[in-house]
Design brief:
With about 140 residues, this protein is an alpha+beta fold. The chain is built from 2 helices and 8 strands; from the N terminus they run αββαββββββ. It has 2 domains: about 35 residues; about 100 residues, Ferric Hydroxamate Uptake Protein, Chain A, domain 1 (Beta Complex).
Length: about 140
């Protein structure tokens, strides 16, 4: 092979590489534009409120929220009132039922996640698709 043939071969190889790179960039751009996007409310959760007479009210919620408090904000028929503290919202009342912490009755609102006692406040409790959360009126 002479020098001229090698140069032409290298030139073709370079052009082929550039075309291949451009095709990859085009395919990536098309994928990013048309790829499925998460829909609003991609996480489906259930929240159950258990009051002082053990009556349950359940709410099915679709949310994109990262934490439970955000997921509960604006849920029709669910009213949560509390006091901001160092660890987030301390729940004082759910749907008008006031907990009497510090009194003789010693009641509070507990958070359960999939049937287990929660370890976080509403502000710090992560929301995971398919989970069941409960706000339960309890005595101590």
């Amino acid at each position: 092979m002479n020098e001229e043939t090698k140069k032409q071969g290298n030139k073709k190889l370079l052009i082929g590489g550039i075309i291949m790179a451009l095709l990859i960039i085009c395919f990536a751009a098309v994928y990013l534009i048309f790829a499925p996007k998460p829909t609003e409310g991609a996480k489906a959760i259930t929240v159950t409120v258990v009051d002082d007479s053990k009556e349950e009210t359940s709410y099915s919620i679709n949310t994109d929220a990262e934490f439970l408090r955000e997921a509960l904000d604006g849920v029709e028929g669910l009213e949560i009132i509390g006091t901001e503290g160092d660890y987030g919202l301390y729940i004082e009342s759910v749907n008008g039922l006031l907990a009497q912490s510090g009194s003789e009755s010693g009641t509070y609102w507990a958070i359960y996640v999939n049937g287990e006692y929660g370890q976080y406040s509403l502000d710090a409790q992560p929301v995971t698709d398919g989970d069941n959360y409960s706000l339960v009126y309890e005595s101590y």
